[in-house]
Specification:
The protein has 392 residues and is α/β, with parallel strands linked by helices. It contains 14 helices and 13 strands. The strands form 4 sheets. The chain has a 7-stranded mixed sheet, with helices on both faces. A two-stranded parallel ribbon has the order 1-11.
């Protein structure tokens, strides 16, 4: 079977390597230095990406609260991080062309909410935002740009600058299925700050680290047993037993640092980031050649490196079901509601009337895998199945 998520980038060998990974303080320092070399500034490592984002928001607002502009199509972890920094998220509607907001949409939000102090540029799914126009507006208004690289590490903006090198602060997530994946983790790279940075020094508990060690193996077993209807039971039992934490669950804790062994794994991926981004770009281009009429028309930028390729279809459930019955699992959707996952959506009090594009697209979005274990033949097969049923 072909999987989009469930640790799909980990084959058995990689899962075993992850389970027995070890590291030292020197590995954490190597990761910090690699991030500084690539993005400039000063780097701080965290146990979770959402903690890094909360720290970024706190720095951007000088710890004084206020409002922060975020994408109208996003993850609950982003909302959680903004609120953990004692700030209020302002949802900015996206464009259908590229699933991002641009300077026009951001400016409208700033006019409506005069106390917006910062903006999180999410680069949704690895499709770069129009950073030049956003930067021009930020210079004019004085708001701080936080670049979110969870989906887009290694990509380039249309003007040739690498994603993560433009704003005042860059945040990276090393969570499951992200552009850099060590199951958990995050980093902050700060290029423009006045106050000393706080470096977390508390290691996550041994139980947290054990869960992170074994997740790829549990996910691998789940995938292997999925065709015989046992995979879901394996994952369900693992969640119930506390061996797997569901995506977006948990709190924001800025005091916990990234374990050295995960820093070592993340460093390996940072050093090969350009190659990985080129590979994702090539896979996206293959999908685009076969499914162009179903993709947002703003895709196809020179430097984009989609961690998943988005389709916008009128019959999402039918497409997902059709693929699933033919051995392609794409039911882990980013994002099936404007703030995903569904179980947290009611907590957000989402302004439906202010973000009509995000609401409409969230009901139609399907995304397809570009991870390293997807072959050209897989892409041709997936695209064939999509063409059989997709409607626009």
């Amino acid at each position: 079977m072909i999987f989009q998520a469930l640790g799909a980038r980990y084959g058995f060998g990689a899962a075993v390597k992850h389970a027995f990974a070890r590291g030292t303080e020197a590995d954490s320092e190597k990761l910090r230095q690699a991030l500084v070399k690539r993005y400039g500034g000063e780097a701080v490592l965290y146990q979770k990406g959402r903690a890094a984002l909360a720290a970024a928001v706190r720095l951007a607002t000088n710890g004084q609260g206020g409002k922060v502009a975020i994408s109208g199509l996003t993850c609950y972890s982003v909302v959680q991080a903004v609120e953990a920094a004692d700030c209020t998220p302002v949802f900015v509607d996206i464009r259908e062309s590229d699933l991002q907001f641009g300077a026009k949409e951001l400016e409208a939000a700033i006019k409506k909410h005069a106390d917006i102090k910062a903006v999180v540029v999410q680069n949704m799914l690895g499709i770069p935002a129009d950073i030049a126009a956003i930067q021009k507006l930020a210079d004019k208004t004085g708001i701080v740009i936080i670049e979110d690289l969870a989906h887009s590490a290694g990509a380039q903006y249309a003007d040739g600058r690498e994603v993560g090198t433009v704003g005042d602060i860059t945040m990276l997530s090393f969570g499951r299925d992200k552009a850099i994946d060590s199951v958990n983790g995050g980093a902050l790279v700060v290029r423009n700050h006045k106050n000393p940075l706080a470096f977390p020094v508390i290691m996550p508990s041994s139980s947290w680290q054990f869960r992170d060690h074994i997740y790829p193996l549990i996910a691998w077993l789940t995938r292997v047993l999925y065709p015989v209807k046992l995979g879901r039971y394996v994952m369900g039992a693992s969640i119930k037993a506390g061996l797997v934490v569901r995506s977006a669950d948990g709190e924001v804790d800025e005091t916990l640092c990234l374990p050295h062994w995960q820093a070592k794994l993340a460093h390996e991926q940072v050093t090969s980031l350009t190659t990985a981004a080129v590979r994702r770009r090539q896979k996206a281009q293959e999908y685009q050649a076969l499914l162009k009429y179903l993709l947002p028309n703003g895709m196809g930028q020179v430097g984009e490196a989609p961690v998943r390729v988005p389709l916008v279809v009128d019959n999402r459930d039918e497409v997902v079901s059709h693929l699933g019955t033919r051995g392609v699992q794409v039911n882990d959707i980013w994002y099936d509601v404007p703030v995903s996952p569904q179980r947290f959506y009611d907590r957000v009090h989402y302004p439906v009337g202010e973000c009509p594009n995000a609401v409409r697209i969230a009901a139609k979005l399907v995304n397809l895998p570009t991870h390293g274990r997807i072959s050209n033949a897989d892409i041709e097969y997936i695209s064939k199945l999509v063409r059989e049923v997709a409607r626009v």
